[in-house]
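## Example record

The block below lists the input lines for one assembly entry, exactly as stored, with component labels intact.
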Amino acid sequence: IAKDDHIGVAVASTVTDLDDGRRRLATLEELRAGLDRGELILHYQPQLNLTADAVTGVEALVRWNHPERGLVYPDVFLPLAERAGLMGRLTSQVLEMAIEQCRAWRADGLKLAVAVNLSASNLQDTALPGYVADVLSRHGVPSAALHLEVTEEILMRDAARATDVLAELRAMGVRLAVDDYGTGYSSLAYLHALPVDDLKLDRAFVAHCDTDPRSAAIVKSTVELAHNLGMRMIAEGVENGAALELLRQWDCDLVQGYHLSRPQPPDRLAAWLRQRQPPTQPDHGARKPA
Ligand code: C2E
Ligand code: MG
Ligand code: MG
Ligand code: MG
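Predicted structure tokens for the full assembly:
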């Protein structure tokens, strides 16, 4: 499906304002119904740990499995969900699915961490840490197996409250990453104060690091910055082997991108992984939900 075939907001510029308004309303109703009917699904993209030379985690990426329109991508419906105040429900569903999948993989001997993206409103919700703790304990998944990704803009929204929510999550043992690092407005002062574990450099800098010297300089400096702050550096958007080799040389900790694998449905990812690395002992500690 071409991105232009996606609903509502994606084609807004080609229709009149009136049509645009109607489309948006229709889409919002559909999104509400879609959430009720459980039409959101997750695809997972592997993260290769360069130190361990193994896939140690995956990022959960939400898609809307629309009955007529097919797979709808998050850039189309997340802004709508955010505006309509549906982000709390959406994130609850995503966390539930991701952690249940993590439990199933662990029970199968695939000890993967799962990374979930948070949105701006999630970090204003002081009930989030309690909810996360509940989902983890219901599925018997250790908190260290959950990574949460937040963008710089999100952190700027209401920095004090966001920092409290993040600190509480981190105190539980959940790992935190700054996503799309380098594209927002956050200053080094934020990095200094924030309770985060990983820097995830935006793919805009990673994609051309093998051909563009300025991108290369940014990537290398960010690895150093992350390490000097006691954080790990994750590179997203690794699209070819040359970039991967350079990232290895530059001491980057984890990589993610189309060169390794596109995001995939969970069963396909498990098959891909088994081919790449044989499973370890099953995790008998992981429980089925009550
Ligand atoms: P993100 O968190 O930065 O996720 C990475 C995006 O880059 C994904 O797009 C992924 O498919 C894409 N990508 C991965 N490797 C490559 C590569 O090598 N080259 C290129 N060109 N792209 C690559 P996707 O799945 O369309 O997600 C877009 C954004 O939507 C995500 O960016 C994230 O901000 C947001 N998102 C996705 N799922 C969720 C969710 O469950 N909750 C929230 N709040 N946001 C989500
Ligand atoms: Mg992300
Ligand atoms: Mg990103
Ligand atoms: Mg992004």
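The longest strand covers residues 54-66. The longest helix spans residues 87-107.
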